[in-house]
Predict the 3D structure of the following.
Amino acid sequence: MSTAGMEAIDLRAAREALRETAPLVHCLTNTVVQTITANALLAAGAAPAMVDAPQEAGDFAVVASAVLINVGTVHERTAEAMRLAARSAGAAGTPWVLDPVAVGGLAYRTVLAQELVALRPTVVRGNASEVLALAGAGAGGRGVDSTAGADDAAEAAAELALRTGGVVAVSGAVDLLTDGRRTVRVGGGSVLLTRTTGAGCALGALVAAYLAVTDDPLTGTAAAHAHVALAAERAATVAGGPGTFAPAWLDALDAIDGETLATADVRVE
């Protein structure tokens, strides 16, 4: 379905810009998902770098096109690297994404994520339970699984976006994205995304990639979500299950062009 309220050319231009510029995305991310995250970025046309040593993270965030901070398997060393990268990105004007994996369920990562939110990420991307917990409006989900729907987190997401001055993206059956003033819904996708390790974490990296090539963070976030959803729909038509879905999804991420992205189910409210 064509976009309504957001010009299709915005999505088309974002896709073309990503391919043309190949942004360098600095990923401090979950050790379980590093490979699929790197492969998803490469398939989309970006360049991944997994630099998570405290001695390097701050310096690299300055030269990268965008930064992803994902607290999935955080420990003391990587937590410090995340703080340094976030501070450096903010000082340099480098866009960065916070993925608050399982926040609310465990105290250590919840405190860390609150510290990172105070550094004003360009985008916070998580499931509804994670966003509710980060906004102080819920207790978190069941591990990495949400126990709430995207609409349940709509008010908290808008308030959090106004607090950070950025965008909050809530994943669900229909994704909800907001900058506190505008709300965008992105439909489509496949349930097989939820049965593929790292698909959501890879989405965070793709959001960072699109932030690097768009002037409006809400447009960049919508483009990344639409890209992932369309690729999932295409992959699901040829996959026999989760095992064959993952490589088919990577192929589809590569195949989606600007014209195709402009047909995504993206609605502005």
About this structure: The chain has a mean pLDDT of 93. The domain at 8-268 is CATH 3.40.1190.20 (UDP-N-acetylmuramoyl-L-alanine:D-glutamate ligase).
